[in-house]
Specification:
This protein is α+β, with helices and mostly antiparallel strands and 620 residues long. It has 5 domains: 162 residues, no CATH class; 138 residues, Beta Polymerase, domain 2; 95 residues, no CATH class; 98 residues, Four Helix Bundle (Hemerythrin (Met), subunit A) (Up-down Bundle); 92 residues, no CATH class. The chain is built from 20 helices and 14 strands. Strands 13-12-11-10-9-14 form a 6-stranded antiparallel sheet. Strands 3-2-1-4 form a 4-stranded mixed sheet, with helices on both faces. The chain has a 4-stranded mixed sheet with strand order 7-6-5-8, sandwiched between helices. Strand 6, helix 7 and strand 7 form a beta-alpha-beta unit. The radius of gyration is 32 Å and the shape is flat.
Length: 620
């Protein structure tokens, strides 16, 4: 007889234990303690029975799981037992599907076919259960629309098969909940990214998570102090989430403050734009998605997306040429040459021009340097003239033979531009390699300086010996740096690898700086002195940074004034100048430390500013 399971078929119910068994302050009697222990034991027994029941269902479904993953090994990325919608209903299986189809209708057709086949397969194992399917695209689309509960629901289910996706969702869901529970006031967005978004995850794949913190209303500490404090706590939560889910060391978390993120977006930082393009929100207060949509529309230009959309549009236009001859002469052939031309000019750092200026700029930036032949610029001019003649009414119709000749010329132009783009990509790749190498070496030198190590004749080898082997940097970072140095030597590399190395180098460099900064945090704090005044009612901070001093007059006031002084030869504070919190942040961030004397003249200067009752406080 076929088995049928349900989480509601148990006749036992969870014991009804009041949330507060005894009144506050009342003495707990032995009888009350006994009843509480019995209630707790009954709950544990019930949970144990439910787990045993689910384990049995999973065991009975093993033949189905094996057949399903064998038949659809490339499409099924995860299968999970989902909680029943109502008490007494059977437990459904949810299969998460990856489709390589580009057309959405074909994706859904493939999904329906797989769902039908899986339901036929499950009947052979255990009757009374059904299989539901969901596309990866549908899952992420729900997150884009703010429907994050679906992720939590999947994370709560019992996995039957996991290519890496379900484990990633479980640990990310738990970590997100932990972060929001403690810091919801400050968290703007919680973003996930990685290969599992595309169904390419493996059990050993890492999961990237990005927590964006709002630092715009923080006035009592620097942005760097806020980020460092929250980062330590949030990373600790990641370890806890990994331990609780049994998925240790897979969650790689980055904490960004909102002001730094905004600066990166304004500067079209490739790392930030990559996260906006590929990331999926698991929590968003209305910030991440608008930026993501602006990027998709090309409004955060110049970006690779915008450039590619220009370059590739020519081929897309040519496909439409054969379908609508009536529009070819006036519009299609015009855009087929002008838009790719603008795209190539953008690749060279030239702002996209209006169409009448395009031929002249092509001659200036491509023909004169010998990158393009004059005949292709003439094709652009001919197509522009044809467009303008139609627009001004000089031409009202055109023969198919003439259209055919324009098509041939335009097709010739596009083939040449394909070669030109590849040629320019190689040139740009060399520039990118050199820029990446310079950036990575700057970070290496900065890390060595922060660690107090001289670079020597070979900074990279010194970095490996003094920083990597000292556990101040992960071994993976040295591998990335070595690969960058290798590309610099060869002067060639693919855009995909360069983008990946740029992302990893930036991410790992920030981690190294954080580790070194955390170790030296106590060192920097040594240069801060707390001062109390006005009968101990007010408290300020005095930073003694080499030849300069900074005074935060009232650390308890958001509108406090901050002043900069020059430290004289006798320790006196001179040259008072009002500065901002941002100025202090930058100085503290870069300060490497130098002995500074605190003299009677220093104290006398402080009392001249704060009052005669100003005194130093130890241990504040």
């Amino acid at each position: 007889m076929a088995k049928k399971y349900s989480t509601g078929d148990s006749k036992e119910a969870a014991p009804n234990v009041p949330a507060q068994a005894v009144a506050p302050g009342a003495q707990v009697t032995p009888e009350q303690i006994k009843k509480m222990e019995e209630a707790k034991q009954k709950q544990l027994e019930l949970l144990k029975k439910i787990k045993e029941k689910l384990d049995q269902i999973k065991k009975d479904l093993e033949p189905f799981t094996k057949d399903a993953t064998k038949k659809y090994k490339d499409e099924v990325v995860g299968m999970v037992l989902m909680p029943p919608k109502k008490k007494g209903e059977p437990i459904d299986v949810l299969a998460i599907i990856k489709s390589e189809e580009k057309d959405m209708q074909k994706k859904f057709d493939e999904k329906k076919k797989i769902e039908k086949d899986l339901n036929e397969l499950v009947k052979k194992s255990v009757k009374g259960h059904s299989v539901r399917t969901i596309l990866l695209n549908e899952l992420w689309e729900m997150c884009y629309k703010g429907k994050y509960d679906i992720v939590s629901l999947i994370a709560l289910g019992m996995p039957l098969f996991d290519s890496g996706l379900l484990g990633a969702l479980r640990v990310a869901d738990m970590h997100r909940n932990m972060v929001l529970k403690k810091f919801e006031k400050y968290v703007v967005s919680y973003i996930i990214a990685g290969s599992f978004l595309y169904g390419r995850a493996k059990p050993t794949s890492d999961l990237d998570a990005f927590v964006i913190i709002d630092d715009t209303d923080v006035t009592r500490m620097t942005s760097q102090e806020l980020r460092t404090k929250l980062r330590g706590i949030i990373l600790g939560m990641a370890s806890e989430a990994g331990f609780a889910t049994g998925i240790k060391g897979k969650l790689h978390v980055q904490v960004w403050v909102l002001t730094d993120m905004w600066d990166s977006i304004k500067n079209a930082n490739p790392i930030m734009l990559t996260v906006l393009r590929d990331g999926v929100p698991m929590y968003d207060r209305g910030l991440f998605m608008p930026w993501k949509l602006l990027l998709e529309k090309g409004k955060l230009a110049p970006t690779p997306e915008a450039v590619d959309s220009y370059v590739k549009s020519g081929s897309q236009v040519m496909k439409r040429v054969n379908l609508k001859l009536r529009d070819i002469a006036e519009m299609d052939l015009f855009y087929a040459v002008v838009t790719p031309s603008q795209g190539v000019l953008m690749m060279m750092g030239v702002p996209p021009p209006v169409h009448v200026e395009t031929p002249g700029l092509l001659r200036e930036h491509l023909v004169k340097p010998g990158l393009l032949e004059e005949e292709y610029v003439k094709i652009v001019e001919a197509n522009i003239k044809l467009h303008k003649d139609f627009e001004h009414g000089k031409i009202k119709e055109i023969s198919p033979k003439e259209v055919e000749q324009y098509i041939k010329n335009t097709d010739k132009f596009l083939k040449r531009f394909d070669k030109l783009v590849k040629q320019l990509e190689k040139i740009e790749a060399k520039k990118d390699i050199n820029n990446l190498y310079e950036k990575s070496m700057e970070d290496v030198m900065a890390a060595l300086k922060m660690a107090g190590v001289k670079p020597g004749t070979s900074p990279l080898k010194t970095f490996e010996k003094e920083v990597v082997k000292a556990k101040l940097a992960p071994a993976r970072y040295f591998e990335v740096l070595s690969r960058i140095a290798e590309l610099k030597e060869k002067q060639e590399g693919s855009r995909v690898e360069l983008a990946r190395l740029l992302f990893e180098q930036d991410r790992l460099a920030k981690d190294v700086f954080d580790i070194i900064r955390a170790q030296k945090g106590a060192f920097v704090e040594r240069y801060k002195i707390t001062v109390v005044y006005q009968d101990n009612k007010k408290k300020g901070d005095l930073w003694l940074l080499g030849k300069e001093a900074y005074l935060v007059k009232d650390v308890t006031s958001p509108q406090t004034s901050i002043y900069n002084y020059t430290i004289g030869s006798k320790g006196e504070l001179t040259g008072e100048k009002k500065v901002s919190l941002k100025d202090l942040n930058e100085v503290v961030k870069k300060y490497t430390g130098a002995p500074t004397r605190f003299t009677d003249e220093t104290l006398r200067s402080l009392r001249n500013v704060l009052g005669k009752d100003a005194n130093l406080m130890i241990g504040a």
